[in-house]
Design a protein that fits this description.
This is MerR family transcriptional regulator. Pfam families: MerR_1. Keywords: DNA-binding. By secondary structure, this protein is an all-alpha fold. A two-stranded antiparallel sheet has the order 1-2. The relative contact order is 0.08.
């Protein structure tokens, strides 16, 4: 990795701001830095000190900002809620998930029937589920059909089976990232060859 340059799959603080602004017009870089200083989000840093936000970090910020705006919760209470679960699995209720993802209850039920989303214990969902829903909403808006999404789910399930054959969790995480990058490169190569 080049010093000071973000890795793929991570976002700069400016990119995070761009993602949050449509939903939270008053958010600023200073606000994001303040929430970081308060321990509500913990982005990784490069050797040069640049912040590297993950998808989970962005969803964590959305959770914090929504809790402040919609439920008027103080930061101390929000921090306690966040600290009860790992940073990458902040749970939200079905109602909150629908509101934040901008889809209907019927659409969510259909995605669950198609195996594209699975509620966790107590019928709750994670920030990854929320990110998945937003991505699916964008894809369907571009014309992707249900059967295409089911094919993506099936491919992911095959990768999970393969990854589960490795016992070391760190190796599994690294391989998962490599699989994602390889998949992207193969799709791009296929598109170049067919054009």
């Amino acid at each position: 990795m080049t010093a000071g340059r973000p890795q793929r799959g991570v976002l700069s603080i400016g990119a995070v701001l761009s993602q949050l602004r449509p939903e939270f017009p008053d958010v600023t870089i200073s606000k994001i830095r303040f929430l970081e200083a308060e321990g509500l989000v913990r982005p990784a840093r490069t050797a040069s000190g640049y912040r590297q936000f993950s998808v989970a970090d962005v969803e964590r910020l959305r959770f914090v900002l929504s809790a402040q705006r919609d439920r008027y919760l103080p930061l101390k209470v929000i921090r306690e809620q966040l600290d009860t679960v790992p940073a990458d699995s902040v749970s939200v209720s079905r109602i909150d998930l629908l509101a934040q993802a901008g889809i209907s209850a019927e659409q969510l039920s259909q995605l669950e029937r198609d195996g594209l989303l699975r509620a966790g214990p107590g019928g709750r969902f994670t920030v990854d589920d929320l990110a998945t829903l937003r991505m699916i909403r964008t894809m369907t808006g571009l014309g992707v059909e249900r059967e295409h999404l089911r094919a993506v789910r099936a491919a992911a399930d095959h990768e999970v089976v393969l990854l589960k054959s490795f016992s070391d969790p760190e190796t599994v995480r690294e391989l998962a990232d490599l699989f994602t990058s390889l998949h992207t490169l193969l799709v791009r190569a296929g598109l170049r060859q067919s054009s």
